[in-house]
Design a protein that fits this description.
The chain is 26% helix and 32% strand. It has 10 helices and 18 strands. A 7-stranded mixed sheet has the order 3-2-1-4-5-7-6, with helices on both faces. The protein has a 7-stranded mixed sheet with strand order 12-11-10-13-16-18-17, with helices on both faces. A two-stranded antiparallel sheet has the order 8-9. The protein starts with 6 loop residues before the first helix and ends with a strand. One of its GO terms (cellular component) is cytoplasm. It holds the Pfam family MTS.
């Protein structure tokens, strides 16, 4: 079943002459099936995404033309780039710096997105790569900018894009490595601090769900040397950040992509999370509700789920429906920490 065509894709359809006969690199996510149309228009198509949900949704249609990773390398081989604006400007800068060395001189640079999502900063984003872009289209609160790769491109240096900071949770110190746009990229948030302060000593297997930069799983690994740590996220940038955070602290853990429980096939004594509730620019509960509702299937008989959430989010009724017992073990006006036992 095809999905409704998004406003951004409708705008791209009106400008599809830009893609005809191109060796096209698309970076980012369209919320519909428009990439299939691009495959028919372009001479060749490669879709690169850092979003595992999007990768899974398009894999059947695009096959080897869609790639999920934190980085794409190789020699210049594309003559057009379409970047769908991510929500974080720093992530857009990262993606452009990574993609530009894959483009031939004079390649088309096309940026598309919703006006409230930062697309109107396209001039500044593209300034390092060529002359000022033109606005090709603007409708239904979306815009399309078109520039050209007219300046020499520096090789992409992955390590230069990691932020590094020290954080402390109780008596545990941690060095955190994070790529742009990753949760906990700028510091340990108050919710995670409250969660970590609420957790007892642990043994067995842990799942850190929505791991971000790997702060929660890494601190618990450091506190509990016998704990087997697993970290999952849908963001390739988060997964690479978690791997680096583990490595720089001399810790070990398994880090992999999963769309909620799509790639999880074992049970855990502990599932711990500061679950995301923002997807793009929209508040999004469905994935977190599925995560909470199905958690008992992935816990051992004596296992427990511990999460922190904004106090206004109505997670307690979901937890009480699917778990035998749920308690609020910490909280203030902003956050609550829930402990649920299967």
């Amino acid at each position: 079943m095809s999905r409704p065509v998004s406003a951004v894709s409708q705008m791209l359809e009106r400008n599809q002459a830009l893609f005809v006969g191109k060796r096209l690199l698309v970076c980012g996510a369209l919320e519909d099936d428009y990439p299939r149309q691009l495959a028919e228009l372009a001479d060749s198509l490669t879709v690169f995404t850092t979003d595992y949900c999007y990768f899974l949704s398009q894999q059947a249609a695009l096959g080897e033309r869609i790639l999920f990773d934190h980085q794409l390398g190789g020699a210049p081989r594309f003559d057009a780039l379409l970047l769908l604006m991510p929500k974080a400007k720093a992530e857009a800068q990262y993606l452009l710096a990574m993609m530009a060395p894959l483009l031939e001189s004079g390649a088309d640079l096309l940026l598309a997105g919703e006006n409230r999502g930062g697309i109107n900063g396209a001039d500044k984003l593209l300034a390092p790569y060529g002359e000022k872009p033109i606005k090709r289209d603007s409708a239904r609160r979306c815009s399309l900018y078109h520039g050209e790769l007219g300046k020499p491109v520096a090789p992409f240096e992955m390590d230069a894009w990691f932020s590094r900071y020290e954080c402390q949770a109780g008596d545990t110190e941690l060095t955190v490595m994070a790529l742009p746009g990753v949760f906990s990229a700028d510091g340990l948030d108050l919710g995670s601090q409250m969660l970590l302060a609420s957790l007892p000593p642990m043994t067995g297997k842990l799942l850190d769900f929505g791991c971000g930069a790997g702060v929660i799983g890494s601190i618990l690994a450091k506190r509990n040397p016998a704990l087997t740590v697993n970290m999952v996220d849908i963001s390739a940038l988060a997964l690479e950040s978690s791997r680096r955070t583990l490595a720089v602290n001399g810790l070990s853990g398994r880090v992999y992509a999963s769309d909620v429980y799509s790639d999880i096939a074992e049970r855990f004594q502990h599932i711990v999370s500061n679950p995301p509730f923002h997807a793009g620019l929209k508040t999004f509960y469905a994935a977190t509700e599925t995560f909470l509702a199905r958690a008992p299937e992935f816990l051992t008989a004596d296992g427990a789920l511990t999460i922190v959430a904004n106090a206004f989010l109505r997670y307690q009724p979901i937890l009480e429906t699917h778990f035998k017992r749920t308690d609020v073990i910490a909280g203030d006006g902003k956050f609550k920490v829930y402990l649920s036992k299967a």
